[in-house]
Amino acid sequence: MPDRGVGPAGPRMRVGRPSRRVRTLLMTLGVLAVLAMLFVMFAGFWTDWLWYRSVDYSSVFTTTLGTKVGLFAVFGLLMAAAVGFNIWLAHRLRPPLSAMSMEQQNLDRYRMGIAPYKKWVLLAITALVGLIAGASASGQWRTWLMYVNGVPFGQKDPQFHLDVSFYAFDLPWYRFLLAFGFAAAVLCLIAAAVTHYLYGGLRVTSPGARATGAATGHLSVLIGIFVALKAVAYWLDRYGLAVKSSDFKAAGNWTGLRYVDANAYLPAKTILFCIAVICALLFFSTIWRRTWQLPVIGFGLLVLSAILIGGLYPAIVQKFQVEPNEQAKEAPYIKKNIDATRTAYGIADADVQNYSGQGDSAKLADQRKAADSAASYRLVDPNVVSPAFQQIQQERKYYQFPATLDVDRYTGPDGKPQDTVIGLRELNINGIPKSNWINDHFTYTHGYGAIAAKGTTPVVSSGGGKTIGAPDFTESGLPTTGALPTYEQRIYYGEKTEQYSIVGGPQKELDYEKNGEKTTSYAGKSGVDLSNPVNRAAYAVAFNEPQMIYSGAIGEGSRILYNRTPKERVEAVAPWLTIDGDAYPAVVKGRIQWIVDAYTTTNGYPYASRTTLGDTTEDSLTDNQRAVVAQQNQVNYIRNSVKATVDAYDGTVTLYQWDTEDPVLKTWMKAFPGTVKPKADISPDLLAHLRYPQDMFKVQRELLTRYHVTNASQFYSGSDAWQVPDDPTNKDSNAVPPYYLSLKMPGQTDQRFSLTTTFTPNGRPNLGAFMAVDADATSPDFGKIRVLRVTSNVQGPQQVQSELNGVDKVAEFVRNLRGTDSDIEYGNLLTVPLGGGFLYIEPVYARGGSANYPLLKKVAASYGGGKPVFEDSLTKALNAVFGAEGTEPPSTTPPPPGDTTKPPATGSTALKQAIADAQKAYDAGQEALAKQDWTAYGKAQDELQAALRRAAEADAAAGTSEKPGDKPSGSTPAKPDAKPSGSATEKPSTGT
């Protein structure tokens, strides 16, 4: 048999097809790659579906997915059909080829190359543009759902007298359709032009006509469609003027029509609409006339009109009619903007009153008495004391508290609501002793317990292991015990819980009981079952964790918990809501519930000025954990329409309708029926913990800096504009945060749980106004905004803080702290209206030494522009600032469990007991001094001081002649030669 590899020309190498084995291998690898890609896509879809089903919000998933798929399919097919049809039509209208020019000869190569694959090329092009258009359209699912489910606002804009729902729900959809139409017209025009050129319908260098009659007619129709769409755009632009943003020097960021808009742009848009319609008709006429002469003239007229009528004419009106008398011309439009903005942000009913702010110096005695009930002064600052919670109540390294704690209300011993600082002991994954996959995701799965402390009073006497100035815990320990009712203490869902956990299976979890550590297995209903191998494989892919497939720690009953932060869960089940930056915990009916405030917003409220949520809600406490989560960062309408709860144990998400009148919420409830429960379903126990949300308040206070003014002329001048001051206790130039505080506003007879803030005049440091909103959801005045406009020159927060820093006692206090390796830390500067003036109260902490957490050491106070005082307690500070005499009255708060400090008694018995206690404390101090035990010495001196104070009180009560300041038997202890190294305890006084 002859050798086929050798021919007459000599040896020839044969390059043939790969062998069957290679082809089979390549095909197998290709199929596996495709299957892997498909499974990755399936895993994402499947895990999402399982999660939504696990939280009982599968309807949200199906509605959202169905809407996206529907929009993708409809608009993708429309775009593909439009482009494909015009390519087919251009090919069908191609001229017969005759003697070809050089240009056509060059193009013939491309025609020949495409000829065998024309259908595939057409399919590829249409598929590509269809996919792009469909993907873009699917992102408009919110716009579509709001359009088809829109509910009327019952309010009309002042210019066109259309319901607000047209601008909020309809106009955005019309604009999307218009944008889609423009994109389709341009793509079809490009595709048709390229096809006509390729097949000779258009010629660039060939002699004769540049375009065939068929090509001329085809392209003219497409251009006519584009111009017709431009006419529609001009018509919609007329309504768009009502929601147009512009820079107006008198009002900053302005929304709505101004004089030039109503009298120049509006008629110009109408004229341009008419010209565009005529121009479009001229282009359509080329189907019969076969010439572009008239359409080109019409298009040139349109361009010229757009320049002259749409640009030059309004500029002339602004320059020669408006600017010479701008205030008078703009006044009616400013008034419309003021009214719309106040309505859109819920500040139309704000009660603004004039308030002197200086107080009556002739009635200081009465004001001192009134100061005791004017407010529950929150000396325990939730923004400062987190390190104290961490060091005293952390218990284990793998637990943590948030950097900023929360303020809530719980019933005190007297049966009245008491401001309480609360934080949850959440899991800290970075503190696990030995980090590995089992420990991180199976053993350490949850936090444990809610820790609460009195908001108004820290620890006032030592004993029972307590330190003076530390938070006075009402719920503490591991497991916790105290004032809170019995509740489920395990925290599987929290603000710091961001990793996934696998629970309920063979691997046990670390847990606690009264006698110490134990193991447990999750018994909640949340999470997704992993006993199914398909689910395990899907989650192994979704979380990029192959161990899930084969790990023996996963078995029957295993469930995976993820999306575990409250904000994350609420945003997932209600993607149409904007989430407040601060979720806060509350113990309700035996469970810890995270309460999440959620907002409905729109960017389409006519005449209402816009605000940027990310900027408006930022203050000195904002961090990534407390930042607002916004679907629309720029809004001009906002309502706190939904109160949501997330169960800290089983992750159950519940949405409650809070604002029953909000049309935006009603629209979304139509789009997602059954997802939001009625307001009547909120239990009284939960209602007691609901409050006015901080981010809503911050948005409203920012708008009120300008929109407290309702007179158009005064608004234009800006003479009464305010600003939110910087936080005087923070070195960074960030806005002062609002503070929750129970107080009495002028005219009120009892304290109301409120959210408060201050304003300063624009560019000035003095106090301009004080704002408070009733934040108690059980109050009939909930949400009522009260603003006190200061009518005299009163010190603002920065001025009070600066003057306080210059007080001699403060300087001495700081020097003493420096000597003990400690630093001063200022708490919240609280502002309280009192007797026609303002009382400033500020807790002052020392931090450092052996107790490296803040301890309340001093209280600063200022009233009516007087010099700030700096005292050891609130009572002393109030006495000093109002010039009252007397000593601090006995505390009415019962001693905490384990506190060995004896309650004050009356008469000679109490005096003898106090003297005996003083002697005992003195002896203990001398013994500690001899041992150079500075911690014990400081504790003894604190007890000595408390005993001397009780002696003075008992002496005054008994009416004896013995001086309250008499020392106990024995000599006064000498001051130690050396200062207690590293101690944060203030140098004690050894006598009175």
Describe the structure in brief.
With 992 residues, this protein is an alpha+beta fold. Helices cover 42% and strands 19% of the residues. It is flat and about 125 Å long.
Strand content: 15-25%
Low-confidence stretches: 1-15, 886-906, 960-992
| Total beta strands | 38
Shape: flat
Number of helices: 27
Distance between the termini: 126 Å
What's the alpha carbon Rg, rounded to whole Å?
A: 37 Å
- Rounded mean pLDDT is 85
SS-based class = alpha+beta
Main beta sheet, described? 7 strands, mixed
Helical proportion?
40-55%
Structural overview:
Strands 5, 6, 29, 30, 31, 32 and 33 form a seven-stranded mixed β-sheet that branches. Strands 21, 22, 23, 26, 27 and 28 form a six-stranded mixed β-sheet that branches. A five-stranded antiparallel β-sheet has the order 8-9-12-13-14, with helices on one face. Strand 31 and strand 32 (769-774) form a beta hairpin. With 992 residues, it is α+β, with helices and mostly antiparallel strands.
